[in-house]
């Protein structure tokens, strides 16, 4: 019985000392505050070129809606390119070399006066 209790204590201590597995530092919540629906949201590494994209959206991201983007273990690095395509417009927005490890949320904004799309990083 003494050895059994010692074993349980040792197991408990090893579990408590094990590193915790936190969410990937690049995972990000994207909030659409542009006033327009988004049909495509893509991330790619700067070395992938600007022709290789995968849509992170399962459906159109309406204004005031958000989506959570999770990165795979195969993905490397903090710096990514981000592309947004609008549902009813042929134009796209591209941000290059965005360090996703520095924040957890991107609030997409559109200024109709300057016709510029930007993001607020949180």
TrEMBL record:
UniProt organism field: Bradyrhizobium forestalis
Signal among keywords: yes
Protein name, per record: Argininosuccinate lyase
Signal peptide stretch: 1-22
UniProt keyword annotations, A-Z: Signal
């Amino acid at each position: 019985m003494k050895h059994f209790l010692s074993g349980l204590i040792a197991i408990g201590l090893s579990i408590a000392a094990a590193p915790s597995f936190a969410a990937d530092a690049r995972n990000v919540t994207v909030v659409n505050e542009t006033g327009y629906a988004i049909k495509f949201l893509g991330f790619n590494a700067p070395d992938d070129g600007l022709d290789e994209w995968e849509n992170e959206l399962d459906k159109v991201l309406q204004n005031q809606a958000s989506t959570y983007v999770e990165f795979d273990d195969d993905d490397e690095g903090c710096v990514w390119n981000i592309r947004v395509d609008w549902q009813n417009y042929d134009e796209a927005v591209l941000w290059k070399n965005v360090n996703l490890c520095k924040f957890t949320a991107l609030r997409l904004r559109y200024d109709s006066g300057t016709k510029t799309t930007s993001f607020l990083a949180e």
